[in-house]
Write a structure and sequence with these properties.
12% strand, 407 residues, six-stranded parallel beta sheet, binds zinc ion, alpha/beta, three-stranded parallel beta sheet, TIM Barrel, disordered N terminus
């Protein structure tokens, strides 16, 4: 379907930000608006609160200092897309919860440090809002740490504190299944009817430490409990609006209202499955058709992770329905703004974890398109900067301030 979309070459003055980009459908570029968008994008601190690139670094040998065409994000394309700060999630699946989840998370964190330290001219580790601002001022990418699924805590608040000392600044309490902290939106049956007794301790200790609590993936009841227990605002690092795309890990309007009331933020994800209902329905049907082929690949490459991923991704891409237009993603932002105001929405791509994205956002270099489309919808410069990163920075700061009063 790529041929439907024009590749538009941007004038020399913009080469420093992004050499070319895709515009959707038959739409004509408004060059004045695009220039204005790039100016705003360059000035803003652009933050993405969730990507799974560490998985590709550890399991598939990605070198983030080189431009890659095999994944969604590296430091070179981050710069092209004007993305200033990103949270690298150390993702540990719930399957590992009873095995060695801490080891897996620690190995990913080690890989992140080693790679960022290899490219001091391009990027730097960041641990606070001030770090993000300073590194942005130096023209480098700020890399922050999150853990996706609290399994690596292995039921220990001591490990939680150790992860904090290592620089981890948020934890997504669980992933697609229940764990010892709380229930998941992906589980068939609840185990705790919300947050477990250990989970309650985790939330309080994260408040005390000044860590961000990520409510993406958790069940509706767990969400309600977390909001009740937490003494600080919480956030959804990569979730969308359920009334637009009906999946359990997107937030209902009531949840978005409660999150905003608490001072938190919902960071919309680019994952096509959670953006567009029509795409999701078609992709679900396709997945069933390719299941037998998937199983063959799984068996064939059980000892070769790289070949397994290459074949799986190729098969999946072959079967995938046409990607949604970027406007569908902007609809989620618009909905939140209309519901609770412009102060409670941001961006959490899920690059390297989602497989399919709206047209033009196939990788991180497409980020300025979001600014362009927000401008096109009539958002002011000030509001766009809030959405691109300002809102998240406010929440991050509040969580740290709340921790000071908890110590
Ligand atoms: Zn996720």
């Amino acid at each position: 379907m790529r041929s439907r979309f024009k590749i538009v070459f941007i004038g020399l003055c913009m080469l420093s930000v992004i050499p070319f980009f895709y515009l959707s459908g038959e739409e004509k570029i408004d060059s004045q608006l695009w220039e204005k968008a790039l100016k705003i994008h360059r000035e803003a601190i652009v933050i993405d609160t969730h990507c799974d690139t560490p998985m590709v670094m550890l399991d598939r040998g990605l070198d983030i200092g080189r431009k890659s065409d095999k994944n969604d994000l590296d430091l070179i394309r981050m710069k092209e897309g004007g993305l200033d700060a990103v949270f690298f999630a150390a993702f540990v699946s719930n399957d590992l919860d009873q095995k060695k989840p801490a080891k897996k998370a620690l190995e990913m964190i080690d890989e992140i440090y080693r790679q960022v330290e290899k490219y001091p001219g391009l990027a730097k580790m960041a641990f606070s809002p001030q770090d993000i601002r300073d590194i942005h001022g130096q023209g480098k990418r700020a890399i922050l740490l999150g853990i996706e699924n609290g399994g690596p805590l292995e039921g220990s608040l001591r490990l939680l504190r150790d992860f904090y000392r290592l620089g981890v600044r948020y934890i997504t309490l669980t992933h697609n299944d229940n764990n010892d902290i709380c229930d998941s939106s992906g589980a068939k049956t609840p185990e705790w009817n919300g947050v477990s007794p250990f989970g309650k301790e985790v939330v309080k200790e994260m408040n005390r430490l000044g860590m961000l609590i990520d409510v993406s993936h958790i069940s509706d009841r767990a969400f309600r409990d977390v909001l009740e227990i937490s003494g600080a605002p919480v956030f959804a690092s990569h979730s969308n609006v359920r009334s637009i795309c009906d999946v359990g890990r997107n937030l209902t309007d009531d949840m978005i209202r409660a999150l905003a009331k608490k001072g938190g933020v919902i960071q919309v994800t680019f994952c096509a499955f959670f953006v567009d209902q029509e795409y999701k329905n078609k992709a679900d049907a396709n997945e069933k058709t390719i299941e037998p082929e998937m199983n063959i690949i799984k068996e064939k490459y059980k000892d070769n992770t790289e070949a397994y991923w290459n074949e799986t991704i190729a098969l999946w891409k072959k079967a995938a329905p046409p990607a949604p237009q970027i406007e569908k993603l902007i609809d989620h932002i618009d909905h939140v703004v209309k519901l609770v105001g412009v102060d409670y929405v941001g961006l959490g791509s899920d690059y390297d974890g989602a497989g399919s994205y709206p047209v033009g956002l196939e990788n991180v270099s497409g980020f300025p398109l979001i600014t362009y489309h927000l401008l096109k919808r009539g958002y002011s410069q000030e509001d766009i900067k809030k959405i691109l990163g300002g809102n998240f920075l406010r929440v991050f700061e509040k969580v740290i301030r709340a921790s000071d009063s908890n110590r």
